[in-house]
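ligand=adenosine monophosphate
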Amino acid sequence: MGLVPTMGALHDGHLSLVRAARAACDAVAVSIFVNPTQFGPNEDFALYPRTFEADCALLADTGVDVVFAPAPVEMYPAGSATFVDVEGLSGRLDGASRPGHFRGVATVVARLFIAAEPDRAFFGQKDAAQVAVLRRMVAGLRIGTEIVVCPIVREADGLALSSRNVYLSAEERRQALVLSRAVREVERLVACGERRAAALLAAGRAVFAEEPGVRVDYIEVVDWATLLPVEVAGPGTLFAVAAWVGATRLIDNAVL
Ligand code: AMP
């Protein structure tokens, strides 16, 4: 059984995970749950797009066996007091700017794994830090579910698909391309033989400087397993960026 955890507002990135699950598993379940514990107090939990009917239609077309869409009280009954915290990793990259975010992610994914007992669970490389946290969680708790990571699905112009892209105005949509441009530029340098993190970071920052309206949250060259900075890129090195485009926080990355 394959499980694809999502927060709904499904797009082709989510569906790529569903297709990967279908290809690898006899039965596929998709969860749709806007998980309150992974949102900070001033984040977009209330605003987050909820398109349940359209999501179900897409999943029916893609051949999903089960859709699990619990109410918050079903996942977190009154008095819930048990959380999963992957120490260290939880405070890096997105966890540094979104305190408590990865504790919420690890907790809800652990609960989904306990509920569904999937053989495999499918996640997008788009959320690369999340993948690192969840890999460490299943190893640390000796959970038998295999984590499968699928490539980032992009628009034709490079923008990584995200449920939050609907927040962008036309001008912000144009500005948002700076994230994928920075990622591509760093990939290009690596293909040319550059390995020094300082040079890769400088190149990434230079691309962001072309779009001063976009506020960088982080630009990092890290080991994908530990999320700690490396000085020289090698196998398993992650280049990751997060930035605010207007009021919308977007992320992108490449495994170098
Ligand atoms: P979300 O609904 O945003 O929590 O995402 C659910 C899953 O879909 C996560 O594993 C994401 O990494 C994955 N995902 C989101 N956007 C993309 C994308 N553009 N390409 C591939 N996977 C994605």
